[in-house]
Design a protein that fits this description.
five-stranded mixed β-sheet, 35% helix, alpha/beta, 220 residues
Length: 220
């Protein structure tokens, strides 16, 4: 899987570098998975919003593709500092990871992290329209990542951010906080969307996490 991911990114890299010269973008999020994910019976992808200045400015070209993948690997699998952030603690990722492992005690469950925006600003926050356009034109890899990573389940904890593969329209998250998402080119993947854990809503979001969990476990 990791070799296939590296080849995917390499095929886009030169065009991305060349066409990002006038934009101050962070490095794209380049995935690298461990053997637990590769050998899992059930593979779960949990998807956030943006990268928040991920590993520095792309135009400085200080890291190779392999080094950027290694940065992902170290952050995702080894860093404990990230657990202070709502996306990673029991408001989101840790909750789903712990609960899904409990639900399937006789299965090996593997997890991978992704974002709907693979390229962000060098600071925190939503990418600018120009950066979003850059990604869509020169680094549209999300669907190819699904082909390679073959998740069984995707949890989009991304609110109303655009899902970067073809899908049937879903209602705004404030009208339908937990929605099944029908991915047109990936009918075998069970996908569900809910609020991002940073969202501030009246009454809180704890019950929506349970709804997501129940939907996932009923349909898989």
């Amino acid at each position: 899987m990791n070799k296939a991911l590296e080849q995917l990114y390499r095929g886009k890299w030169n065009n991305l570098i060349e066409n990002s010269k006038e934009l101050r973008t962070a490095y794209p999020l380049l995935i690298k998975v461990n053997e637990d994910y590769v050998n899992a019976d059930i593979r779960v992808m949990i998807v956030g919003q943006e990268t928040d200045g991920w590993i520095g400015e792309l135009q400085k070209c200080e890291k190779s593709i392999a080094e950027a993948q290694e940065e992902y690997f170290k952050y995702f699998y080894k860093s404990k500092n990230k657990n202070r952030r709502p996306f990673w603690n029991r408001k989101n990722f840790r909750y789903f990871k712990e609960e899904l492992v409990k639900r399937w005690p006789n299965k090996k469950v593997g997890f991978v992290w992704n974002n709907v925006h693979k390229i962000g600003k060098i600071s925190r926050g939503k990418p600018t329209p120009r950066i979003i356009g850059l990604e869509r034109r020169y680094f549209d890899v999300f669907g190819s990542e699904l082909d390679i990573l073959a998740p069984n389940i995707i949890i989009f904890a991304s609110g109303d951010r655009c899902i970067p593969v073809k899908h049937l329209k879903v209602k705004p998250v404030n009208k339908d906080p937990v929605s099944k998402v029908h991915l047109l080119d990936f009918p075998d993947i069970f996908a569900v969307r809910t609020y991002h854990p940073n969202a501030q809503i009246k009454g809180g979001k704890k019950h929506f996490k349970k709804q997501v969990l129940n939907l996932v476990c009923e349909d898989t």
